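Please study the protein below:
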Amino acid sequence: MSVAHSPYVAAESNIAELTVRAIVLGLILGALMTAANTYLGLYMGMTVSASIPAAVMSMLLLRLLKFKDVTILENNVVQTMTSAGESLAAGIIFTMPALLVMGFADEMNFVTVFCVAILGGVLGTIFTIALRRVFIVEEALLYPEGIACEEVLVAGEKGGSSLIVILYALGLGAIYGWFVKGFEIAEAKVMFGVDMMGTRLYAASDLSLALLSVGYIVGLRIASYIFTGAIMGVVLITPIYGLVHGWPSGGMDVAHSAHQLWIDHVRFVGVGCMVVGGLWTLWSMRKTIMTGVSRVFGAQIGDSVDGMPRTEQDLPMKKMMPVLITIVCLTFVFYTWRLSQQGATLTEAAILGAVGSLFLAVTAFFFSAVAGYIAGVVGSSNSPVSGMTIATLMGTALLVIIVGDLVLGMEQEELMFATLIISSVVAVNAAIAGDVMQDLKTGHLVGATPWKQQIAEIVGVITGAVMAPLTLVVLNDAYRITNTYCEANPIKFYADGSANCSSALDAPQAEIIGTLIQGIFGGTVNFPMLGLGVLIAVLIIWKNLPVMSVAIGMYLPFYLSATIFTGGLLSHFVLRTVHLRIDGTLTGEPSQEASDKATDVSKRGLLLSAGMIAGEALMGVVVAMFIVLANLVKPFRAPAEWFCSQSYSDLESGHSICTERVIGTLPTWLSILFFAWFFIVFTYLATRGMPKSKNRRGNILIDWVAILIDGIRRFFIAIKPPSSGNMQRYER
C-alpha cells in the first residue's frame, strides 16, 4: 500500500538540482571518499557510509565558495554521487584482492578491476531504477540511513554549527595519519605477550583514530560481539592450539609468535564461522527476502506514467533495457577475454563466459532486490552483503564445477579464476544496490527528481569504477595487500632478512574469499579449524547471538578488534553520561528527554567519527602515492625518509636508502601516549555538547566511574543464573 508523503521541496517547485557545480563537487568528493573507503576496507575489512559526511562536506564547501543560492537538492546530488562510489569500493575490495591470495597477482590490474567495477556497478544501479517505486513508494520501506541523511540535509539547509564539526575531525585525522603513516614517528600498532604455564598469551591494539571512530559509530553492542569473537580466537583457542601443537620458531618474541600461530591456523576458525554465519543470515531472513522478491514481481515495473509529478519521474525502463542487455553482452565478452587470457581455449572460455553471463543476469537482479529490501528494513549498514557474497561464491563455484570441470575439463587454476571473476561482478552489484536505494529514499524525502538523481548515481559509479582500481594498485605497490601476498612478495625486511609485513593491509574479507575458493578447488586449507569454526557458529546460532559479528571478530586480527571495542566503549560512556545527567540515575529505561538529548550528542560524535575516518584514510592514500612515486622517480623519497641523517645509494635500483633518521620512531610507551593525546582531544570534542547535571555539578570522571560500576553490576546480573525467587527481577 502506498503511503502519503509530503517532500521537503514540493513537487511543484522547480529549483536547481543537477547543476554543473553539483556534478563537479560530486566528482571530487566521490573520488576522495572512494579512495578513503578503499583504504579503510582493506585496512580493517569494513567500510563506512559516505552519505552523511558527504552531505555535510558538500554544504560546507559550497558555502565556503560563496555560492549563496545553493539548494538542498544540489547537496543531495553531491551526496548521491559520493556514496555511490563508496559502496562500489566495498564490493571491489572484498573480492578482487583475493586474486593476490590465490596467486594471480598479475591479474589484479587496473583494467580487470575496472571492468568488474563498471559492469557490476552500472548493473546494480539500473536494477534499482526498477525497484525504486516498488520499495520506496508502494511499500514505503523505512531505509533508516536514508532518513538520517535527509535530516542532515534539512538541518544544513536551516543552518547550524554542526557544519564545521566534521572539518575539525578531518584535520585531526589527517594530522595523525600523516605523522604515523607518513613520517612514521610513532608505532602504528602495539603488541604485548607473556609466556606462562607452557603456553602463551598476547594482547595487541592498533593505534588508529579511524578504527576508534568505527567502534564509536557501530556502538558498544556490535563492538562487544566483535571483541568477544577476538577473545575466543586469541585468548582461548590460540593458547590451547599452541600448547598441543607447539609454537612457531624463527626468533620471534612471545607476542609475535602467538600472533603468527593465529595467522597460520586459528584464523581459519573465523572463516568457517563466517561461512555458516553468512548462509544462516540469509536463511533467517528468508521470509523478508521472499517478501521483497514477490513485491517486485507482483508490481508494475515500467516507465513513469504520463502526468506524474516531478518527484515520481524515473529514467524510463524502455531506454534502460537496451543498456541492461548491453551490460550482459559486455560481461560475456569480458568473461571470455579474461578466461582465454588465463589459459582456457577460446571455445572453453566462450561457453563458460556465456553460462556465467546468464547466471549474472538472474542472480544480479535477485540480489539487487534482496539487498534493496533488506536495506529498507534494517539499513544498508546491517545488510548481510558478506552473506550474499558468500552465497554467490558458492553458487558460482557449483556452476563452474559443473560446466568448467565436469563438462569442459578445464584446469584447476582456470576454474578458480573463473569463480572469482564471475562472482565479483555479482558481489559489486549487491554491494551497491542497498546503498543506492538509501540514496533514493533520501531523495524521495527531500523532494528530488528521481531521474536526475539516478543519472547522478550512474556518474558516481563511473567515478568509483575509475578511482577504486587506481587506489587498489597504488596501495598494493606501497604497502602490499593481504599478509599472504606480502609474505611471498615483501617490500620491507627485518634485519635477519625475513619479510616485514607490519605495514601490509590485512584485507580480511578478500582473504576469506581467496581461502574459500582454494578450499573448494582442493587448495591448502586447514579443514580441521574450518570445521571447528562451523561448530562454533552452530553453537552461537543456538544461543541466538549475532553470529556474523562474532565471526568477524574471530577472523579480524586482535589489534583491530581491540581498538574497535575501545571506540564502542567510548560511545557507550558518552551516551550513558547524558542519561545520568538528565535523569539523575542509571536504573531503568532513560526518559524521553534523556533519549532525545543523547541522540543530539550522538549525532555530533558520528560526524566527528566520519571526519576522523575520512582524514586518516585519505592521508593513508596520500602517503601511499608518495611511496610509489619514490619507487618510480629517483630524486623523490618517501615521507619517512625526508629527514634522513645517514643514507647509502642502492646500486641495483639507483635509489638513496635511508639508514638513520633525524627523528626515529618513538618507543612503544611514547607511541601509546601520542595516540592517547589524540584520543583525549576526540573525547573532548565528542562531549562538548554534554548537558549539565540538573541536581549536581557535572564531572566527567565521576560520571564515568558511576557508569563503570553500573556496567559491572549489570554484567554480573546478566551472567548470574536466575532463581525462582528473583526470576522477575532478572528478566527486567
Notes: Residues 310 and 404 are 49 Å apart (CA to CA). The longest strand covers residues 189-196. Residues 299-305, 724-732 have pLDDT under 50 and may be disordered. The chain is about 70% helix and 5% strand.
